[in-house]
From TrEMBL:
Protein name as catalogued: ABC transporter
Gene3D superfamilies documented for this protein: P-loop containing nucleotide triphosphate hydrolases (3.40.50.300)
Pfam family, one: ABC_tran
Entry GO MF terms: ATP binding; ATP hydrolysis activity
Keywords: ATP-binding, Nucleotide-binding, Transport
Family from the record: Belongs to the ABC transporter superfamily.
Superkingdom, natural source: Bacteria
ABC transporter domain ranges (all copies): 4-230
InterPro entries noted in UniProt: AAA+_ATPase, ABC_transporter-like_ATP-bd, P-loop_NTPase
Length: 303
């Protein structure tokens, strides 16, 4: 059982602070690292993989320091974000090259084992250029785990996949985690971690903003303040009724529609339907205002 640990880690590039005083332990099982673009996810993974030195703090894999420690690569595999697989090779050739780079005693057997884990045996002798996105990604996973590492890090492994491919990849990650490995993957899409049974660590602007299971994170995000645009059979009367509600912090009428600031999504939406019914007002549309993912995540930092 191998854990990866960050203790008071910061990493800056010139005057850009990419990771800001993060303390975090990722233990055996499956963990998601969630955050908007530019939050520092890649930097965290590269620190864990020993590709970057922390500007401050300590990064360990098992009991060993990650930085400047080639020994660590026996324990760890990394699937990088950018898809760079030579299309003219077959999956078997690609994974075998990785096995040879690791100087494994029986590279052929290790290649067969890794391709078996990702269920790529049937297509292993076809050129990678003929594969689907999901198959290419699984081939890259096989290359990263050919040396049977205890820790596997994956940077945005679901990027560009359709829902079926995504489910297949999530099953694969769960299976590897169930074998006792420490698996950490990054994502900038909340729905991508929906099928995750393990922990989600949320990172925003280089800081650890929240952690817990998917339902906990989802709740934190939906319980934040929301703005709704509402149309009804009598907007003006609806406005006067709503302003008396505890879950409403402001009401305004602009361009013929009603804007409502609600302090809590769940309480407000439940109250709205009931109020409209008892006041005999017909609701014709309720639209949540468009909020960028950035803003939603930032709310978590503020709490
Ligand atoms: N080599 C670099 N030089 C300067 N700034 C960098 C460098 N690498 C990353 N950054 C900056 O550090 C911050 C964190 O970047 P990082 O790539 O770790 O985020 P991320 O969460 O992985 O985002 P993305 O999903 O968009 O890759 C960003 O502001 C980014 O612009």
């Amino acid at each position: 059982m191998t854990s990866v640990e960050l203790t008071e880690v910061s990493r800056w590039y010139g005057n850009v602070v990419a990771v800001n005083d993060v303390t975090l332990t990722v233990g055996p099982g499956l963990t998601g690292l969630l955050g908007p673009n530019g939050a520092g996810k890649t930097t965290v993974l590269h620190l864990m993989a020993g590709l970057l030195a922390p500007s401050q703090g300590k990064v360990t894999v098992g009991d060993q320091s990650a930085w400047r420690n080639p020994e660590m690569y026996r324990q760890l595999g990394l699937v990088t974000e950018r898809e760079s697989v030579p299309g003219f090779l077959t999956a078997r050739e690609f994974v075998l090259a990785s096995a040879k780079l690791h100087k494994l005693p029986d590279p052929e057997a290790a290649t067969r084992r890794a391709l078996g884990i990702v269920e790529m045996e049937a297509a292993q002798d076809r050129e990678i250029s003929t594969y689907s996105k999901g198959m290419r990604q699984r081939t890259r996973v096989a290359a990263a785990l050919v040396h049977d590492p205890k820790v596997l890090l994956l940077d945005e492994p679901f990027n560009g996949m359709d829902p079926r491919q995504r489910m297949h990849m999530m099953d694969l990650l769960h299976r590897m985690a169930d074998e006792g490995r420490t698996i950490l993957f990054s994502s900038h899409i909340l729905e991508e971690v929906e099928q995750l049974s393990g922990t989600v660590q949320v990172i925003v602007s280089g800081r650890l903003a929240a952690s817990g299971d998917y339902r906990h994170i989802r709740r934190l995000m939906t319980n934040r303040p929301h703005v709704f645009t509402i149309s009804s059979s009598d907007d003006r009367r609806l406005a006067t009724v709503l302003i008396g509600q505890e879950s409403v912090s402001g009401v305004s009428m602009t361009d013929g529609s009603l804007q409502v600031h609600a302090s809590d999504y769940g309480t407000f939406t439940r109250a709205l339907a009931k109020l409209a019914r008892t006041s005999d007002i017909r609701l014709t549309s309720i639209l949540p205002a468009d909020e960028s993912l950035e803003k939603v995540f930032s709310y978590l930092v503020a709490t």
